[in-house]
């Protein structure tokens, strides 16, 4: 009887190593050989799960999108709309272990995409997924007449840029976490009106 | 009599090649050999001006800081404070050839710095120089009682993040130039009051 292997679990183990490799070496550093060294798996074992460089990067981006989505969905946001938006935006900042890891991987993909590596879309991780969510939020705020900005589209562009800029400055250690939190708090406060009725 | 060579001009030629190399390969791609291939100069000629990888990167960062500073100083900003701040911020966005080139080099340095390459400061290009200038501007606006933000420090943090986020989204081609211009326009309009007296 063949040894029973939990293939999903093996792939999950591997993705941690792929992320670690990307964080250390950038997207350019991703090769079967480097991943084998990073993980301690044989090249053959790596290839069994992820046969090419392309499949490694696709897998890493997919898993990143999934992990961030799960984290955001699990947020217990409550209170008035302002507080909920603030909580959502703060969850995007690299202020703890997992979000720092994700943000570093995201930046490596972004940097490679700008240099012409074919990951401009990268399973939505670079822009699309978050932008769609932000737009949903700003539209819902506008629908409730709580958005103090020209349009929901402009508000989403602005919040997205603010967050990605803060992410970069945090990763560069040029900004203290409290400064980033404060920037989010201030921006939400001026952009979103407090509801006139309680709740 | 030895051949007369304009060494400054030779170094200026070289810096264009260094930037092109960084934009194509990232900071990791910078080696004497790659720069020699990129420039068509012999390795010996490259080494004559820039003997080590470190000196190449230092030179690239220095020259970038200088070029951006000259560009910003040359801006003919006029009109009310709002318009001047808007003009300054727009000049930072990668909306034309040179600023796109600079922003790509900046992002490559930033990405390498996050990954632990020792360029966190990189001659101020990653954060320090621009932040100091933004702070000067927001303090001056606050002094004229025109700043609608908690503090000049918070306003500078926020504007800096907004600009760097917009830069990234423009480089990723996820944002149209007009959307970025609009975001800057909106933000300045809500952050800076129009003077009550004409002028």
From TrEMBL, chains A, B:
SUPFAM superfamilies: Homeodomain-like, Tetracyclin repressor-like, C-terminal domain. The keyword Repressor applies. Residues 8-68 form the HTH tetR-type domain. Gene3D superfamilies: Tetracycline Repressor, domain 2. Residues 31-50 bind DNA. One of its GO terms (biological process) is regulation of DNA-templated transcription. Keywords: DNA-binding, Repressor, Transcription, Transcription regulation. Pfam families: TetR_C_6. InterPro entries: BetI_C, Homeodomain-like_sf, HTH-type_TetR-like_transc_reg, HTH_TetR, Tet_transcr_reg_TetR-rel_C_sf. GO terms for molecular function: DNA-binding transcription factor activity; transcription cis-regulatory region binding. PROSITE patterns: HTH_TETR_2. This is Transcriptional regulator. It comes from Deinococcus radiodurans (strain ATCC 13939 / DSM 20539 / JCM 16871 / CCUG 27074 / LMG 4051 / NBRC 15346 / NCIMB 9279 / VKM B-1422 / R1).
């Amino acid at each position: 009887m063949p040894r029973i292997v939990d293939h999903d679990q093996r792939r999950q183990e591997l993705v941690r190593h792929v992320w670690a490799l990307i964080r250390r070496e950038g997207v350019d550093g991703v090769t079967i050989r480097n991943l084998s060294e990073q993980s301690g798996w044989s090249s053959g074992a790596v290839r069994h799960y992820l046969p090419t460089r392309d499949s490694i990067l696709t897998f890493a981006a997919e898993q990143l999108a999934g992990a961030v989505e799960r984290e955001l969905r699990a947020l217990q946001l409550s209170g008035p709309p302002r507080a909920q938006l603030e909580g959502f935006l703060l969850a995007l900042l690299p202020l703890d272990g997992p979000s720092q890891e994700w943000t570093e991987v995201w930046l490596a993909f972004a940097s490679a995409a700008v240099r012409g590596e074919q990951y401009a879309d990268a399973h939505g991780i670079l822009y699309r997924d978050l932008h769609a969510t932000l737009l949903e939020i700003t539209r819902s705020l506008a629908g409730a007449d709580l958005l103090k900005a020209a349009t929901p589209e402009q508000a989403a562009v602005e919040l997205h840029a603010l967050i990605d800029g803060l992410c970069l400055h945090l990763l560069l250690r040029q900004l203290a976490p409290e400064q980033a939190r404060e920037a989010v708090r201030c921006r939400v406060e001026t952009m979103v009106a407090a509801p006139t009725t309680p709740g």
